[in-house]
Amino acid sequence: MKRPAAEAEMKPILLIRPDNNQSDADALAEAGIASVTEPLLEIVPAPDPGPGRALARLLGEANSVTWLVVTSPRAWGQWLKLVPGLETMVADALDRGLKVATVGLATTKSLPDTVHHRSVTQPGISAEGLLDFLVTQPAGIVLLPASARSRKVLPEGLRAAGWQVHQATVYDTVPRSGIRLPELEKLGGVLVRSPSAPRSGIRLPELEKLGGVLVRSPSAASALAALIAVPPPGFTVFAVGPITAARCRELGWQPIEIGATTTQVVVESVLRHESGCDCPGDGSMLEP
Fold first, then answer.
1. Rounded CA gap, 271 and 1, in Å?
2. Domains of the chain: residue spans and CATH
3. Beta carbons of 159 and 142 less than 8 angstroms apart
4. Position 177 pLDDT exceeds 80
5. I want to staple 111 with a disulfide (CB 3.0 to 4.6 A). Which of 116, 165, 270, 271 is the partner?
6. Are strands 197-203 and 99-103 parallel, antiparallel or unpaired?
7. Whole-prediction pTM value?
């Protein structure tokens, strides 16, 4: 979806997630929208590898009532760092009847070929959809490699439905260290909150030169809120998914909610809004 050549040049979009920003940047560029990438988060391994390794050992006991549940595209790669040989362990468990369920196509594609071709992929973008599916199955055992910040809706919902859930933290998403103010000058017009004085900060010029920001997770929204206190009018928050949009609203913003995580849908939504098409909400970052 490309913008008409007659339209005015659109302002760049800020990309802040800890990884995979390039796919959004490339797709935005293809649509005629520039971007600025400034990751505000970073992925770090679990401080204690023991739980992740213990979870992997349970694969040796897996059978037809056991499900491996993966809810994030990052989970498999981070778990693999803790457990060399994990792919073979899962393949062996699949031969004994292990089932695999994921949230979204991106998560499925993050798995090795030997696993993802035998996975049940839920088309939704949240744990609620996967929970709705699993509770229609006979209650069994779930192995859940997860982020330290993962929501509790899935494990709690499964336990309430009679499932046995084994969850282990295999990674965390934390505010990126070493963000220097000069790096943020290209964003412009930002009140950067000082940790020692949360209500004061340093004003940097020209944030109004950006059209808005793409926020793909609640943690990214929180990281952004820790830096930006008073953006100028017209700076749009594009929130991907209902959970992220809800977090943005909790922070006092009025996001444009995008209902799918795929890059194509995200870019089309940004393009429609930036082109002046009707969209839910007015896109202003702060409540009036």
1. 8
2. 13-40+176-274 (3.40.50.10090), 44-174 (3.40.50.10090)
3. no
4. no
5. 116
6. unpaired
7. 0.75
